[in-house]
Automatic annotation (TrEMBL):
Taxonomic superkingdom: Eukaryota
Residue ranges of every copy of the SWIM-type domain listed in the record: 139-176
Native organism taxonomy: Eukaryota, Metazoa, Chordata, Craniata, Vertebrata
Encoding gene (name): ZSWIM4
Protein's recorded name: Zinc finger SWIM-type containing 4
Cellular component terms per the entry's GO annotation: Cul2-RING ubiquitin ligase complex
InterPro entries in the cross-refs: Znf_SWIM, ZSWIM4-8_C
Length: 1106
């Protein structure tokens, strides 16, 4: 295949034939180049100098000099390629870290001097300024070259890097730009041959004298060997000359430091977790592509070195042992590596022996246990592109396809590419001409159609991804025109195939629609495919339409902002009215809209999403004009009518990839031009069939908050991401439909039917409410109503499966209803049972709905305000009846201002007490009643609470202690009658001696009824010798006696002190009785007799109490 015409990239310094002082300046302006120079150029490019000397017995010195002159590289493009990660920025914003940029600065600052070319060897000095306070540094640089390629470099800076150092760059650029100023000598062997014996001896002696410390031992050794007649050096004719160029058998390639490449890749892989390491490895992949584009054999050589280091990554064996998958970043790098090998192996101009050696290496790597496998269930033997396609393969065929699958590594595609060739006559004619058609040729010897009905060439006979890999390979190897021609033929084939698919679908449409489901027509999708077929086609077509050549940044993530790419329509030869830009848009939408099954595996599914976003990013760079809008409309219509072949078709396969992201792009693009089509397309794309048909009839629905549902759908690892994209599409439609009730209700219906995640529905409701209530404009009531309806749906979905966000959701719903008006607020209060729990309704809905801020916001008149209050009170009473334990107090609080409602709430509490309402809640309500100034009701509730309470002898710190003391204080303040009534309850419920003693002492401090809440009924405090306190004293004494015996049963010596203190408190209580002293003495005597075995304890008792 003929190489394309050379074209100098913008941003490069002038080449040899464009510079005013370069090698090309040897001829005057307007004067033809000398025949000697023309001939010398051709010889210098393709012949080793040894070959010239063997071919001609005598080569005149002027001819030798011109060949040597023209053997140095003439273009700066290669120098740049070997001294930077990418191309230079066209604005001259060069990165100072890049060797090419630094070398250019050194050249321009006059740092290059003493340049000498001796044969095929160039040397010179580079003076580099030192840093602040540092002296100038001098570097000696040597460069060997052959056939317009630099074959070795040496520099005093000892730079160890992938690329040439700045000093080598400066000397090389000096030689290219100022070729005539370089002193040129023939190879040193030619000069030596002109000397006689005396001259040679003088030359050698002077050389040794000038460098005796370095070369004297070597000179003596060589002299000894030459004087020895039988030595090896005397058996060889002639002597080596490092300035005489390469030999015939020597490889002719640019100098590449293999050791440094291996070391660099190894180091970057060891830092694989860092973003910068991945970026640098990608830059090295880009360098390989750049070399391939320049037809540089080092491209494949560098890729081999990188691959070997990738396979030696110790993490591969570790991941395999642990059964864990590699990281996403590492997986992406392996994918790029595999795709690059496909481009290398499929090269249209490589030699058969080169391809055989590559395939041998790939085969060896493919068999390694650590070699990563290709992710996803993509086939290696899919059917070829055909003009027609059946609706779907039968189940038997699908089973055979799966069964045929075997172990496929990332190199499997490259190995498969080894069997492909470029010798097909029809293919060669497609690549050779823009005007290839049926009129130019007859039958090409194939039973496949070669042209579509319009006479445009087709490319059939191999799988679509493989055909697109050919396009990528042609671009990678520097054949952009040929890549464009083949891309056009593939697009023609896709169009013809889709036309036949639509015809096939029309014949079976009625049957499929009645059935309501379909088998998948594409078990493997084109988006996310390892060969990225849609991306290859799209980039090839877009590349032809760029207004100017865009160059890659040296460090893409550290440079200035990327400039927006500008495209123009470039007509397609032989297809009037069509442009490559329109084809790029068409083929990308065709791939994105393909109905396809989701691949297996987390990474493969993630790659589908990532590839889809990459393609849409490419499309978003294209500015839509009227011509492209027409393409959009047509493709959108075809996608809607595509049936089972389109992801937008009426019938979907259950596990097909959703179209949400693609639909969002189409919706946004079409909305200004054809709103009806935009909404129809986006509404059709809202489906997520895997969730719609996942649950068998009658099976309980899982927790709707688990949006990913990973336990039910282990294959759909990215389901959460897909649901988020679905939500974004719905949000875009809601925002766009503001002010249009027809589409708003259509979007609402679609959301309610297709979105199953409450959290996403809530987000949609919030977004809709925010959009409907702008700060500087009146609210959109329809959109607000939709926001409320979505909020109500969320409430219903999450009512039985509580979530930590419920309180936020309830508050938002009340706020949204308030924005709409009082009727909406009252509606949610009246229908609270199906939306809220009693606690939410009583503590949030009723309270928030009647706050001062809410009432001000609603601006209600008195009757309407009272209506809202009545609704809230009714809600609170219903909640109290439903859940008195948690809602009684909120209901009482809300009903304070309405006597009837308050009485009803109080009665609910009394009824609930009989039904088992706990003492803690009763005490809480009782305290509330006391605070409200209703002591008798508080007393009533306190007695009900005490009736349910039981505090054991050892529960000194019972949580109800304070409540009991409060209840006793309340009864004492009310009077003797109430105190007498509560004493039996105290005695029955409390068995803790210190508590009983404490209550007794409190009651003896003042007369009953003298408290702030009671009327004065008694003149002096009650005595403990009369009722009702005598019963309480007896109970306290009995409690001390029982507790003492209980504690002594299992007492340990370390608790003796505590027990003595306990007896001291008991004595204080005993002494409150008239005969207390005697009772306590009898009690102690009983203890001494009963527990006389505890001698130490009894001794302590005698010491303290006698």
């Amino acid at each position: 295949m003929d190489p394309p015409a050379a074209k100098r990239s913008r941003g490069y310094p002038a080449g040899p034939e464009e510079g005013d002082a370069g090698a090309g300046a040897v001829r005057g302006r307007g004067r033809p180049e000398a025949l000697l120079d023309l001939s010398a150029k051709r010889v210098a490019e393709s012949w080793a100098f040894e070959q010239v000397e063997e071919r001609f017995s005598r080569v005149p010195e002027p001819v030798q000099k011109r060949i040597v002159f023209w053997s140095f590289p003439r273009s700066e493009r290669e120098i740049c390629m070997y001294s930077s990660l990418g191309y230079q920025s066209p604005e001259g914003e060069h990165d100072a870290r890049v060797p090419f940029t630094r070398g250019l600065h050194l050249l321009q600052s006059g740092a290059v001097d003493r340049v000498l070319q001796v044969g095929f060897h160039l040397s010179g000095n580079i003076r580099e300024p030192g840093g602040p306070g540092e002296p100038e540094r001098l570097y000696h640089v040597s460069i060997s070259f052959d056939r317009c390629k630099i074959t070795s470099v040496s520099c005093g800076c000892d730079n160890r890097d992938l690329f040439y150092c700045a000093h080598v760059v400066a000397l090389s650029l000096y030689r290219i730009r100022h070729a005539r100023q370089v002193e040129l000598r023939l190879p040193i062997s030619e000069t030596l041959s002109q000397m006689n014996r005396d001259q040679l001896q003088k030359f050698v002696q002077y050389l040794i004298s000038a460098h005796h410390t370095e070369v004297l031992p070597t000179a003596q050794r060589l002299a000894d060997e030459i004087l020895l007649l039988g030595s090896e050096i005397n058996l060889v004719h002639g002597a080596p000359d490092p300035t005489a160029g390469a030999g015939i058998e020597d490889a002719n390639c640019w100098h590449l430091d293999e050791e440094q490449i291996q070391e660099q890749v190894k180091q970057l892989l060891s830092n694989g977790g860092y973003y910068g390491a991945s970026q640098q490895l990608r830059s090295m992949f880009c360098k390989v592509r750049e070399m391939l584009r320049m037809r540089d054999s080092n491209g494949a050589r560098m890729l081999i070195l990188m691959t070997e280091q990738f396979l030696q990554d110790p993490r591969l064996a570790l991941w395999q042992q642990q059964g864990a998958g590699m990281t996403d970043k590492c997986r992406q790098l392996w994918d790029e590596l595999g795709a690059l090998w496909v481009c290398v192996v499929l090269s249209p101009h490589c030699k058969p022996e080169e391809r055989a050696s590559w395939l041998q290496l790939l085969g060896k790597w493919d068999k390694l246990d650590v070699c990563p496998l290709e992710e996803g269930n993509y086939s290696f033997d899919r059917p070829s592109l055909q003009p027609t396609m059946a609706l779907s393969p039968g189940p038997e065929e699908e089973e055979e396809m799966v069964a045929a699958g075997s172990r496929h590594t990332v190199f499997g595609r490259a190995l498969q590419a080894g069997s492909l060739h470029w010798s097909d006559t029809h293919l060669q004619r497609i690549l050779a001409s823009d005007c290839y058609g049926p009129s130019l040729t007859g039958h090409v010897g194939s039973d496949k159609p070669t042209f579509d009905p319009q006479g445009r060439p087709l490319w059939l006979g191999e799988p679509f991804p493989t055909a697109c890999a050919r396009v990528d390979t042609l671009r990678a190897h520097g054949y952009p025109r040929q890549a464009l021609r083949l891309a056009g033929a593939i697009v023609n084939t896709l169009r013809l195939q889709r036309r036949h698919q639509l015809e096939s679908y029309k014949q079976q449409k009625k049957e499929l629609l009645q059935k309501g489901s379909t088998c998948i027509t594409n078990t493997e999708g084109w988006v996310g495919h390892p060969l990225d077929p849609i991306g290859c086609l799209c980039r090839a077509l877009l590349e032809a339409c760029r207004l100017e050549e865009e160059t890659l940044a040296l460090y893409p993530d550290s440079g200035p902002e990327k400039r927006k790419v500008a495209y123009q329509h470039v007509p397609v030869p032989g297809s009037p009215g069509e442009s490559y830009l329109a084809l790029a848009l068409e083929v990308t939408l065709l791939g994105l809209g393909q109905q396809r099954a989701l691949p297996e595996g987390l990474y493969a599914q993630d790659k589908v999403v990532r590839n889809e976003e990459q393609l849409l990013t490419l499309l978003e760079e294209v500015e839509l004009d009227e011509r492209l809008v027409q393409v959009l409309r047509k493709q959108a219509g075809l996608l809607l009518e595509g049936g089972p072949f389109s992801g937008f078709g009426e019938v979907l396969f259950r596990e097909s990839v959703p179209m949400h992201t693609c639909a969002r792009y189409l919706f946004t693009a079409l909305l200004p031009h054809d709103p009806d089509l935009a909404y129809r397309l986006a509404l059709r794309a809202m489906r997520l069939p895997v969730l719609e048909t996942a649950l068998p009839a009658g099976e309980p629905h899982p927790n709707p908050l688990d949006s990913v549902l990973s336990n039910r759908f282990p294959r759909w690892f990215i389901l959460g991401h897909l649901e988020t994209r679905q939500c974004e599409l719905a949000s875009s439609m809601l925002t766009a439909a503001k002010g249009d009730p027809k589409w708003l209700h259509a979007v609402l219906a679609s959301i309610q039917q297709n979105i199953h995640s409450p959290s996403l529905l809530f987000k949609l409701a919030q977004d809709a409410c925010k959009t409907a209530t702008p700060a500087s404009a009146p609210p959109d009531t329809t959109l607000l109503g939709i926001a409320l309806e979505l909020g109500l749906q969320v409430m219903r979905m999450t009512l039985s499966t509580m979530t930590w966000r419920r309180r936020e959701m309830v508050r938002w719903l009340v706020s949204c209803a308030t924005e709409i008006g009082p009727q909406a607020l009252m509606n949610i209060m009246q229908n609270w049972y199906s939306l809220f729990t009693p606690v939410e309704a009583a503590t949030i809905v009723a309270v928030t709905g009647t706050t001062h801020a809410t009432l001000l916001r609603l601006q209600l008149d008195t009757p309407r305000r009272e209506e809202l209050w009545a609704c809230a009170r009714t809600l609170a009473l219903q909640c109290a009846m439903k859940d008195p334990q948690n809602c009684a107090l909120p209901a009482l609080t809300l009903c304070e201002k309405n006597h009837a409602a308050f009485e009803a709430a109080y009665q609910i509490v009394l009824d609930a007490a009989a039904g088992g309402l706990g003492h803690a809640h009763l005490f809480t309500v009782a305290r509330y009643m006391e605070h409200r100034g209703l002591p008798l009701r508080a007393y009533k509730l306190a007695t009900l609470a005490l009736a349910q309470l039981s505090i054991a002898f050892n529960q000194d710190s019972h949580p109800a202690v304070n409540d009991v003391l409060w209840a006793c204080s309340l009864s004492h303040s009310l009077g003797r009658h109430e105190l007498s009534a509560i004493v039996p309850l105290i005695i029955r419920s409390i068995h803790c001696a210190p508590m009983l003693s404490d209550i007794l002492r409190r009651w003896t401090l003042s007369a009953p009824g003298l408290g702030p809440l009671g009327a004065r009924r008694a003149a002096k405090p009650l005595g403990t010798d009369r009722a009702p306190l005598c019963q309480l004293l007896d109970a306290a004494v009995a409690a001390y006696i029982n507790t003492s015996h209980s504690r002594l049963t299992h007492i340990s010596p370390r608790h003796y002190g505590d027990f003595i203190e306990f007896l001291g408190k008991a004595r204080e209580t005993f002494l409150l009785a008239p005969d207390g002293h005697l009772q306590f003495a009898q009690f102690l005597e009983n203890l001494k007799q009963t527990y006389k075995g505890k001698k130490k304890l009894m001794l302590l008792v005698r010491e303290r109490f006698g």
